[in-house]
């Protein structure tokens, strides 16, 4: 049997890729060398866009109770005062979900893996280790450690920072020249973290609901909330400190002592890491794609590492479905890296810049940094999620590129629902309240685009859709064409412009205009 897609690795990124592809009915093989999810926490943070993805694959009701919603990020200077506040408490939620959620990875992975059982076309093989692969003209042969073989038309490698697939393909990494050693400590506390009396705290700041970064030249550190009673500390290792010695229980207890004084707690793990900024030079080699940590590694200062991987597979899944269903040609897949690489580099660049000022160990330079940051301050209401730029190349038409909002709307039956739940995902044509009644142009109809009319199919109760139209210079007769990953393909001021936008879509998707065999 030749599967449509094989996914190597069933961590959060690989499992989410399987869900996205499974929804389309494609046959998917998932190879995971470990029989059970990793028992210790690694990634801990996601943002609203990831929650929207989980919403789209039908798992949000199971995952939301496992999440801890928080209020953003706080940076404390060398003198114990606030130098940057990226708070979200009390702000509007244009994308539907809060900006920051913390979770416990073993729980997340268990739900994602367990949910795959609803897809009859998904073959999940736990304990199956990939040891090599060969590419042919029309499929990839995967060689397994037990001597067996599997075959797939395309492969997505979600096998982590040490990716066997990336190494087998001899794909090099672009080193963005950031490497710092840190000790990561996870613990369960039977009480709140004990914070010192920081100065300059905003009135709305709740330290128990914030990710707190200490930009202290004596030892930079981070304290982040987790779900339930789980908390995480990250301590920068100072020059001359030994990794093994810093992981010893006595040293870990010494570092935690100021934060957990008098609070019963249990150490979950302590491990040292090198925080890197790395990006693969090639994200596609023939029929094989890299995603997640296999394609890039991001310093954790904005909590976007796993988020990048989920964006990768959300970008790739709908393109593979179009190709494998015979509605587009293979040139469409060449848009994957041009779209995702700039995203990743933009965030890594911001994270590296933040890391450089966070990791400053010179007291005089740290004091100057604090003064400068307080003078220019942070943009009020800014969040880490604002780091994500629009797509500038690839499957983008006129006025396209940004993530589209997801307000709560009232549907035709009078029920309040999120926009994506009303539209059902896929390609969506959102038409203004005064747009014409003519059917969509033929290319959109052939794609199965779903038409949603504001004022008829949905009611914009909170006015967020009207505000989006106004911000983008669109009148009530305009239309917005959304991609399946909820990014804007393009906007059309009227029906005439909509025809031109549909023609752009044909060009950028490399749609097959006639009924011919799919080259895959």
Question: Characteristics of this structure?
Answer:
about 525 residues; eight-stranded mixed β-sheet; 14 helices; 26 strands; globular
Please provide a written account of the structure.
By secondary structure, the protein is an alpha+beta fold. Helices cover 28% and strands 27% of the residues. The chain is built from 14 helices and 26 strands. The protein has helices at residues 12-22, 48-56, 60-63, 105-115, 164-168, 243-246, 249-260, 305-324, 336-358, 363-376, 419-423, 442-446, 464-471, 495-509, and strands at 2-8, 28-32, 45-46, 68-70, 72-76, 82-87, 100-102, 122-126, 130-135, 140-144, 149-157, 173-189, 211-214, 221-225, 230-236, 265-280, 284-285, 288-290, 296-297, 408-411, 416-418, 428-431, 450-453, 458-459, 479-482, 488-492. The strands form five sheets. Strands 1, 2, 8, 9, 10, 11, 17 and 18 form an eight-stranded mixed beta sheet that branches. An eight-stranded mixed beta sheet has the order 6-5-13-14-15-12-16-19, with helices on both faces. A four-stranded mixed beta sheet has the order 23-22-25-26, covered by helices on one side. The radius of gyration is 24 Å and the shape is globular. The protein starts with a strand and ends in an 11-residue tail after the last helix. 48% of the residues are buried. The model is unreliable at 381-385 and 513-520 (pLDDT under 50).
